[in-house]
Amino acid sequence: MTDFDVLVIGSGPGGQKAAIAAAKLEKRVAVVERRNMIGGVCINTGTIPSKTLREAVLYLTGLNQREMYGQSYRVKDDVTVADLGIRTQHVIGREVDVIRSQLSRNHVAVLTGSARFVDPYTVDVIDEQGRDVKVSASKIIVATGTRPARPESVEFDEETIIDSDGILNLPTVPDSLVVVGAGVIGIEYASMFAALGTKVTVVERRERMLDFCDLEIVEALKYHLRDLAVTFRFGETVAAVEKRPRGAITLLESGKKIPAETVMYSAGRHGMTDELGLEAAGLAADDRGRISVDSFYRTAVPHIYAVGDVIGFPSLAATSMEQGRIAAHHACGEPLRGLSSQQPIGIYSIPEVSFIGQTEDELTRSHVPFEVGISRYRELARGQIIGDTYGMLKLLISPEDRSLLGVHVFGTGATELLHIGQAVMGCGGTVDYLVDAVFNYPTLAESYKVAALDAVNKLRRVAKFEL
Ligand SMILES: Cc1cc2nc3c(=O)[nH]c(=O)nc-3n(C[C@H](O)[C@H](O)[C@H](O)COP(=O)(O)OP(=O)(O)OC[C@H]3O[C@@H](n4cnc5c(N)ncnc54)[C@H](O)[C@@H]3O)c2cc1C
Q: Is the pTM of this model over 0.70?
């Protein structure tokens, strides 16, 4: 007899949803989590603080209202770290409370400490004072997430040279910032600080950024960020970062020197497996700390599962939650359908980006013909009302069966709007459903109808020429 039916290590989105799903199936469930980390990276240092910070920045700078009220419009002239922190701390506190309450309502035991495997069925939970307790379980789900990767050559000092965790503890809003790495996290923070008036330089080794996104939308985003005074250095590698009394100098291999008050590294993340004692369970992680799993999230040891960022791509809270639920159902013998084939991507840059399905480049590479339907927010009454003149929605339509191959949105509410397209795609709908549907007016959702009409008109034109 084990202590628990299901033991979950880590209380981020993956672990939380796994624990609740197993508890709903009336299993004896426990979650192991470190002190002050309930909710994981997601609630404490990642998704929730960064998204709340973004909301605070947009509100206090009045950025989205300037189209209406002029370029000098501000809600507050000097936005301080304290102004931003109030909102962030408030939301984190509330979210932790919600999670604690959900776990307790579902009778999930929370064991405080760090878990380490003793054998494949037992983990040692060690608290901050070094006291330990051994717990056993028939099924174990590892959801330990990741930490920011730190190149060894860089001396992080938590003050001037920081990673994405450190950005939440800055004493002041810097007047200049170098962001190393133009991935999702780097671009989101670059946008926020640029909106606050910080002079931001983004250094990226590759020639392109966000290369998994639609090229046209990435170009639009770059244009907007440049308009906020962001400088991009693509195809450039950092040779060294030197700390100086007034900040740091970032030296590029090309010989350029970039002075800035703060340097933020956003150079990938590393799986939190170093202290898990995986070898005692008969498991191993790869060189980036990640654990391999099958389509049901089982590791090489079948009663041990792994979900969330610790298994790698796509490393999103949204997907981690679903992986957790699927792993728990599989572990508890519940029938399941597996992860849906289409996953949405949301990037909370300013303006925001979201898409599902394929990009033009991917379709072209695989010789799949498509037609494009575009709607621009400035041609929608809602776009004019909210002062968003740059937003756009783009549908990629199959001329063969008129299905939606991809939906790409840029601008206000992109991450919410996308789910209309996702629902149509998921239910096997065609562009004709969107042509015929009546949308509330004035809404941004109407952009689906406009883009659908645009695509259908283009398809009709091709058909006419073929006569
Ligand atoms: C700055 C930033 C912004 C982001 N923005 C978004 C976004 O907008 N949308 C989105 O979908 N995703 C976003 N993400 C990604 C998202 O946060 C992650 O995908 C998600 O948190 C991963 O969930 P997880 O379940 O793997 O666990 P995590 O949230 O990574 O949590 C893992 C937990 O496991 C605990 N743990 C680790 N080792 C042990 C151990 N040995 N014993 C006990 N506990 C342990 C840790 O303390 C931690 O609390 C962002 C990430 C960052 C860093």
A: yes
